[in-house]
Amino acid sequence: MAAPAPLALNITFAVNSTTEVDQIISDGAWIQSGDSFDLVSGSPAREALNVSAVDAWAEALHAAFPAARIYAHTAGVEHVRTLARKASRLISGIFYDYEPHYEREFTTNFSRTLSNFAEATALAHQYGRLSIGYPTGQEIARNRTNQTGWDYATIAGQVDGLVVQTQAFCHRSTASLNASTDEVLAQYSAAGWTGAPPTFGITVGATNVTPNGVPAAEADACASAIAAEGLHALYVWWAPGTNAQLVEFLAGIGRAG
Question: What are phi and psi of 254, to 5 degrees?
Fold first, then answer.
């Protein structure tokens, strides 16, 4: 059987532990130019933020993939402040995770939400980092955007980049993912957006290990749906013990390991 045609997708890989760092490095042949890493700590905000661990992960990944951009990912503006001020200069930007129960400042009130993103961005910029918004996709899932005024293009105006949490939609079906990405892209179009388009996320792996996870074949279908929108970026969650599925997914989208 012929190998699938490669999808032109740059992938940001979420990394949550030393085990995952080691697995990424071990499977490094699958990493391509344009990929990046997002090092997660202190998310949700009630969990401890470990800057030393983030720095160690960044150093290991930079040594293995010196051209790759490395981000740090956390929840709560205080964690953003700490990471922006203290983290290694290998960290080029801070992901601000914004979803229910992840930080005490979360709210569905849209004007306050914009203020929260603006504060996170100011903190990142103060220390020379990019600000990447990582907002919940629940406002799409509950069809509440028209009721609460949530508009992802408006959030994008408060940050340097936006990754919308769409893992749950991929978990439901490719059609559900398509509907969610179409809604967000319609908001960008209505706003006359001329900057970078949004990035959407999926989770690869068994559901009992990774919430909202899907098997490799379903992840391939979701990635193909995103690429079919004319997008060139993808955010991927996975977990220790699911790296075989991650490699299967990468092979399925046409990468050669």
Answer: 95, 10
Among 82, 165, 216, which Cα is nearest to 72's? 82
Ramachandran region, residue 123 (left: φ > 0; alpha: ψ -120 to 50; beta: rest): alpha
At 217, list the tokens.
């074949």
CB 10 within 8 A of CB 232: yes
- The CA distances from residue 9 to 5, 12, 35, 61, in Å, are 12, 10, 9, 20
Residue 166 and residue 240: Cα distance in Å, rounded?
21
d(CA 211, CA 44) in angstroms, rounded, equals 15
Q: How far apart are CA 64 and CA 74, in angstroms?
A: 23
The total number of residues written for the chain in this structure: 257
d(CA 98, CA 106): 7
Residues 6+ apart with CB under 8 A from 192: none
What is the rounded radius of gyration, in angstroms, for the C-alpha atoms of the chain?
Answer: 17
Cβ atoms of residues 210 and 236 within 8 Å: no
The whole-angstrom separation of Cα 43 and Cα 25 is 23
Residue whose token pair is 């992938």: 11
Q: What is the pLDDT along the chain (257 residues), one digit of tens a residue?
A: 556 678 889 999 999 999 999 999 999 999 999 999 999 999 999 999 999 999 999 999 999 999 999 999 999 999 999 999 999 999 999 999 999 999 999 999 999 999 999 999 999 999 999 999 999 998 886 665 566 778 999 999 999 999 999 999 999 999 999 999 999 999 999 999 999 999 999 999 977 777 899 999 999 999 999 999 999 999 999 987 888 999 999 999 999 88
In order of start, what are the domains of the chain with their CATH numbers?
10-252 (3.20.20.80)
